[in-house]
Amino acid sequence: MAGTSSSVSVSTKRERIAEVSKQSPTMVWTTLAHHIDIDWLREAFQRTRRDGAPGVDGRSASDYEANLEENLQSLLDRAKSGSYRAPPVWRVYIPKGDGSQTRPIGIPTFEDKVLQRAVVMLLEAVYEQDFYDLSYGFRPGRSAHQALQALRSNVMPTGGWVLEVDIRKFFDTVDHKHLREILQRRVRDGVLLRLIGKWLNAGVLEGVTLSHPEMGTPQGGVISPLLANIYLHAVLDEWFVHEVTPRLHGAAHLVR
Q1: What is the Cα–Cα distance from 137 to 123, expressed in whole angstroms?
Q2: Which end of the chain is less packed: N or C, by CB atoms within 10 Å?
């Protein structure tokens, strides 16, 4: 029952944040991190997959869960005090497409995944109110199948051209400075921005070599898909809606 009660509390907080964000689309949030408490972290833990490979610390989900309450309290204290240190992600390569190419995947530590999930739960409540219906990737309640259905319903009745575009190596080339500027248009909570900055600068461990890329968000990180959507909403979706569409004589649709 305690778990159910805490879940309801977290859900209520998220609903309130979402409601205010929807009603005030130009409002800048300066305080959000105070919502993250033990109940919030416990819910983040429940939403974190436990079957993934361990990160650089070699600590599995079951290891973390064995002393869960103490671990969550320690995580909360470090996150709020600013002493949390984001560990580097462990990079592995998996086949891409037909197997002739590979793409890098970053594996965070399990504890890092929990904290990233906690921050995602906050930021999603804000940014889901801003995102357009045209974006489908990595959003709650949305899928690639829905994107295909949207494409079909837009094209089939009247026909037309379909242009398929792939943003090459997007996760590897996101500009950190630009991303921070975009984030601060809506969220200026110092605790959250510092945590995101730590994740962006945490570094990548590949074999025995530690590097600190100046661009990109590691694929595989819990928060990376949301940061990608925030970035693409600002530089692509809004450009299409406000700059491209008004100049066209016929109908055009973006499905991302």
Answers
A1: 16
A2: N
- Asked whether the predicted pLDDT for residue 227 surpasses 60, the reply is yes
Q: What is the 3-state secondary structure (H, E, C) of 138-150?
A: CCCCCCHHHHHHH
On whether the CB atoms of residues 1 and 159 are closer than 8 A, the answer is no
Q: How far is CA 22 from the centre of its chain?
A: 19
Cα atoms found within 13 Å of the Cα of residue 235, Cβ hemisphere only: 15
Give the β-pairing of 204-206 and 89-96.
Answer: parallel
192 by Cβ neighbours in 10 Å (0-12 / 13-18 / 19+) ranks as buried
What strands lie across the sheet with 101-107, from one edge to the other?
A: 101-107, 89-96, 204-206, 209-211
Please state the rounded mean pLDDT for residues 115-137.
97
CA distances from 220 to 11, 15, 21, 110 (A): 25, 27, 28, 12
Percent of the chain with pLDDT over 70: 98
Residue listed under structure tokens 């919502």 = 35
Q: Which amino acid is at 141?
A: G
Tens digits of per-residue pLDDT, 129-158? 999 999 999 999 999 999 999 988 888 887
**With contact defined as beta carbons under 8 Å apart, do 33 and 191 qualify?**
yes
Whole-angstrom distance, CA of residue 221 vs CA of residue 207? 18
Could you please report the per-residue DSSP string of 194-222? HHHHHHHTS-EEETTEEE--SB---TT-S
CB-based burial, 51-90: b 16+ in 10 Å, e otherwise:
eeebbbeeebbeebeeeeeebbeebbeebeeeebebbbbb
User: Which pLDDT does position 207 carry in this prediction?
Assistant: 85
